[in-house]
Design brief:
twelve-stranded mixed beta sheet; membrane; 46% helix; ATP/GTP-binding protein; alpha/beta; P-loop_NTPase; 705 residues; flat; 26 helices
Length: 705
């Protein structure tokens, strides 16, 4: 609104000037020019041609000052940056082209004082005879058009856009580059400080010639920072830089970028832009129309997104986060596990190092139900959480004890954990399976494990025995569609989730949600339990580990909520999406919202879900104004007569307003506002960093440039 008022004021002022309504407008010009050029009086116009030419140049200078002052007062540069530049190409170039065409039209129609002042100045310098040549006139006109067009070409970055579209972008010559100091970032001062000047020069040349992208820069800076912790690794890294330049310290996959980016990323800071804060009274004034991005300091507190199908959770939140973590993995700074149904928009196969398609015989990798651990107790605890963690009437610790009584003896006898059919037989108490296992233990002399097996045999069939429930859940995975999957023998090819905590891997797991919904939920719950257990047990937490669940329905349990709380202290985080909070047991609603630092309520949620978010986000102090109208009773006869006359004419009694201002606590977002006031394509997002800094809930236009 301020910009509009400034523009209208400038137009009014210029109109008053051009039409001669401003007094003394020519006085400054007459003070510096000969008097014989002007008619008498302060308002007298030019008498000679020289006076008319001086007035033309004078008006052009005043118009330039007016444009400059209007731009500064109206803050048009900030508006241009927010609403045009941040939307990126090709919108930026198109907007600049439209503005350039409009400006050219106004210039050549002499609505803007540009052409005549230039012609006057050229004639004053070179003489009027110069216009006798039509060629010279055409050259001057061409230069004027180019001069008007040049600022818009710079603002619209036309040259960069054309070079990018042709794929022939070439770096600027060394002479045209901005001067760089020895400590500027593009000259790699950390390498120079360590004495590797040749390596720094190599990387500087790679950057300036465009042979390095943002992932290469982030990867090499991270590799150098890691190498400084082990001095014996500095020399090999510097020599690799001298040999291969920007291709040094490559990711094990050999990739230097993702095949396609759908969001705007800042790889050096690890940020991914997910949208733009809306112009809404709920948003703080300073945050309106500003961009909103996520980075590891936010994802480290974990994020919960709730919204109905079609609200944009997968396309506008999950996909950008998976891309950002994938780019950080290529830079050697993160590992990501993305879990979703087959066909979920998590990215193409080329964007991942490992793709596990559960139930698909063409899958190159299998899934290890035991997470790659060799400890029977640890494997039993995690597997029990995945199998029966959602059964509120069953204690998962008792289930873990039952599994440990079978997994330990089986591993001692065979050197590996049982496959799904074998585990099902053991849980069912099949006599042949138990007898074979007992015989193997006796032959190998594993007396301690034999006692474990005997204890399981004594407890089988007792009241509250969790084995039947465990067997029923394992039966969900013992289906023909999963034949050959979850193998554990020497010929198995499983992907062990434990490797996520050691290597910058990009892993995607496709679940068969359509035909095996219950099995998919079981596996999602198991992967979440394995992830929280594995990341908590890491000794080296320099690598950020991220888990993204595209649908966490029935995957959250009491134990995984406790595990999510621990993630921020071990440099890890999880992104969970739900269609409704009711997909989580009611007893876990409050603990889950309290465990995650970042929450997002998408458009279309119910008032019940909105109530839970409103309670989690708390209240704030606001200033309220209450206006009460009181009837005025006059004491004087004349005043009473006037009041009576006014009431007769208007039909209303004479009143006075009493204004009461007070501070009250009010919900930041009410349940009704979250359910009905959030537009489509928007979400209300509350963010918290691992350091405890937080922002109020912001209404964000997802994907907004």
């Amino acid at each position: 609104m301020g910009a509009v008022i400034t523009l209208l004021s400038a137009l009014l002022l210029w109109s008053l000037w051009r039409n001669g309504y401003l007094p003394y407008r020519l006085v400054p010009l007459k003070l510096f020019t000969p008097g014989e050029w002007w008619n008498p009086g302060t308002s007298g116009g030019p008498r000679t041609i020289e006076g008319a030419d001086a007035l033309t140049v004078y008006e052009a200078l005043l118009f330039g000052l007016l444009v400059y002052g209007c731009g500064r007062i109206g803050n048009f540069s900030e508006l241009f940056r927010r609403h045009v530049v941040e939307r990126g190409q090709p919108f930026l170039a198109l907007a600049a082209a439209v503005a350039a065409g409009l400006t050219q039209l106004l210039v050549w129609n002499e609505a803007l004082p540009v052409v005549r002042p230039v012609l006057v100045l050229v004639a004053a310098v070179a003489g009027g005879e110069i216009y006798q040549s039509q060629t010279v006139v055409n050259i001057i006109y061409g230069l004027i058009a180019a001069a008007v067009l040049w600022p818009f070409a710079r603002l619209g970055r036309w040259r960069e856009l054309i070079a990018a579209r042709r794929g022939t972008a070439t770096p600027a010559p060394a002479d045209d580059l901005a001067p760089a100091t020895e400590t500027s970032a593009d000259r790699w001062p950390e390498l120079r400080a360590a004495g590797w000047t040749d390596a720094a020069e190599t990387l500087t040349a790679e950057v300036r010639t465009g042979r390095m992208n943002d992932v290469d820069v982030a990867r090499l800076r991270h590799a150098w920072a890691e190498a400084t912790r082990s001095p014996d690794r500095l020399a090999p890294l510097a020599e690799a830089v001298l040999r291969t330049g920007g291709a040094a310290a490559l990711h094990p996959s050999g990739r230097r970028d993702l095949p396609r980016r759908t969001a705007r990323h800042d790889v050096l800071t690890g940020q991914v832009r997910i949208g733009r804060c809306a112009e809404d009274p709920h948003n703080p004034y300073a945050r309106r129309s500003t961009g909103l991005a996520l980075d590891p300091t936010l994802l480290g507190t974990s994020l919960l997104a709730v919204g109905p199908p079609g609200s944009g959770k997968s396309e506008r939140l999950v996909r950008p986060v998976v891309e950002a973590l994938g780019l950080r993995a290529l830079a050697g700074q993160a590992a990501v596990l993305a879990v979703g149904g087959a066909g979920a928009p998590l990215g193409p196969d080329e964007a991942f190092d490992v793709v596990v398609r559960v139930g698909n015989p063409a899958s190159a990798h299998d899934l290890d139900l035991y997470g790659g651990t060799s400890d029977p107790d640890e494997a039993a605890a995690v597997l029990a959480e995945g199998l029966v963690g959602d059964v509120g009437s069953l204690d998962s610790r008792r289930a873990a004890t039952v599994l440990a009584q079978l997994l330990g003896p089986y591993r001692a006898a065979h050197g590996h954990f049982p496959s799904v059919p074998e585990l099902r037989e053991l849980l069912d108490g099949a006599p042949a399976a138990l007898a074979a296992l007992r015989a193997a233990l006796e032959a190998a002399g594993h007396h301690a494990m034999l006692r474990e097996l005997e204890a399981r045999a004594r407890q089988a069939g007792g009241p509250g025995d969790p084995a039947p429930v465990l067997a029923d859940r394992v039966a969900l995975l013992d289906r023909p569609a999963f034949a050959g999957f979850f193998a554990t023998g020497p010929d198995a090819r499983p992907f062990e989730l434990r490797s996520l905590g050691q290597y910058p891997l990009r892993v995607r797991v496709d679940l068969p949600e359509r035909g095996h919904a219950e099995a998919s939920r079981l596996l999602t719950r198991l992967l979440l339990a394995q992830f929280t257990a594995i990341t908590a047990a890491r000794t080296d937490t320099t690598l950020f580990a991220g888990l993204v669940l595209d649908d966490a329905t029935h995957a959250v349990t009491a134990e995984t909520v406790r595990g999510i709380r621990r993630l921020r202290s071990v440099n890890a985080g999880a992104v969970l999406t739900l269609r409704t909070v009711d997909d989580v047991p009611e007893a876990l609603h409050t603990p889950l919202l309290g465990a995650v630092g970042c929450t997002a309520a998408f458009s279309g949620i119910t008032t019940w879900d909105g109530k839970r978010f409103a309670e989690a986000w708390g209240k704030e102090w606001v200033e309220t104004r209450e206006v009460a109208q009181h009837t005025v009773f006059a004491d004087q006869p004349f005043t009473r007569a006037l009041h009576a006359l006014r009431k007769l004419v208007t039909g209303k009694a004479v009143t006075t307003d009493a204004v009461t201002v007070r501070q009250v606590e009010k919900e930041r977002w009410s349940a009704s506002e979250l359910a009905y006031a959030v537009p489509a394509g928007h979400a209300v997002i509350r963010l918290t960093t691992v350091d405890g800094e937080h922002a109020p809930p912001l209404l964000v236009e997802l994907g907004g440039r």
